[in-house]
Amino acid sequence: MVLCFASEASALEEGAASWSEMISWELPMPIGGFCCSTGHEGSMAKKKGEIRRRNVEKILLVAEQVFAEKGYAGASMGEIAQLADIPKSNVHYYFATKEDLYREVLLGLLEVWKQDALCFELYDDPRIVLSSYIRAKMAHSRDRAYGSKVWAAEVMQGAPILQEQLRDNLYEWAKLKEAKIREWIDDGRILPVEPSYLLYMIWASTQHYADFNYQICLLNDDRPLDDLQFEKAVQSVTSVILRGIGLTP
């Protein structure tokens, strides 16, 4: 006997060959009056989780591009589903509304950028910390340019969707980084500077390569920066910021 739940199968149909391979299991034959699991149920749950992970990841990456190019108002779940090559009903299965999807894109970006700043906890040398942070930020400005544009658009509009999370989450996170910078200043390890302004300068300098990549391409003979040019850009941003606070790159 095979049982299958349609609501779950709907969200998995593109990744399964048959109904029995979606979200289903065979009931084991009773032995001595009891049922004993064959392990099939566990493998199906694992497969279901992997399909869900892949689909959600794909939807979020496509959504970054659509929200960046069309804005929140101009984006549609239908277009996102089409570009992701996933049925619209399945997109709604994972994200009930466009606002839910948009919020998840923004929160995902926030987590990525917080990961970029883990060097503040891993190292104590300001030169190593700031060099690592700038390089990580620059890398994501190149690899996740659409996401950076979505974030910039949200913030420039006063964060209508993400305002609460920014106040509760980003604020405390930034204050911890400022405290670390202030320690370096108090210890005489870098020149005195307002910590928040140093962070703003890093964010502005690195995210420029995402938010204004069209302008950069235009001024680079209508070509994106190649690997060598981008590495020089990373080194230039790092050098200017470090030298400005009395450090040698």
TrEMBL record:
<dbReference type="Pfam" id="PF08362">
    <property type="entry name" value="TetR_C_3"/>
</dbReference>
<dbReference type="GO" id="GO:0045892">
    <property type="term" value="P:negative regulation of DNA-templated transcription"/>
</dbReference>
<protein>
    <recommendedName>
        <fullName>HTH tetR-type domain-containing protein</fullName>
    </recommendedName>
</protein>
<dbReference type="InterPro" id="IPR013573">
    <property type="entry name" value="Tscrpt_reg_YcdC_C"/>
</dbReference>
<dbReference type="GO" id="GO:0003700">
    <property type="term" value="F:DNA-binding transcription factor activity"/>
</dbReference>
<dbReference type="GO" id="GO:0000976">
    <property type="term" value="F:transcription cis-regulatory region binding"/>
</dbReference>
<feature type="domain" description="HTH tetR-type">
    <location>
        <begin position="53"/>
        <end position="113"/>
    </location>
</feature>
<dbReference type="InterPro" id="IPR009057">
    <property type="entry name" value="Homeodomain-like_sf"/>
</dbReference>
<dbReference type="InterPro" id="IPR050109">
    <property type="entry name" value="HTH-type_TetR-like_transc_reg"/>
</dbReference>
<keyword id="KW-0238">DNA-binding</keyword>
<dbReference type="InterPro" id="IPR036271">
    <property type="entry name" value="Tet_transcr_reg_TetR-rel_C_sf"/>
</dbReference>
<dbReference type="InterPro" id="IPR001647">
    <property type="entry name" value="HTH_TetR"/>
</dbReference>
<dbReference type="Pfam" id="PF00440">
    <property type="entry name" value="TetR_N"/>
</dbReference>
<feature type="DNA-binding region" description="H-T-H motif">
    <location>
        <begin position="76"/>
        <end position="95"/>
    </location>
</feature>
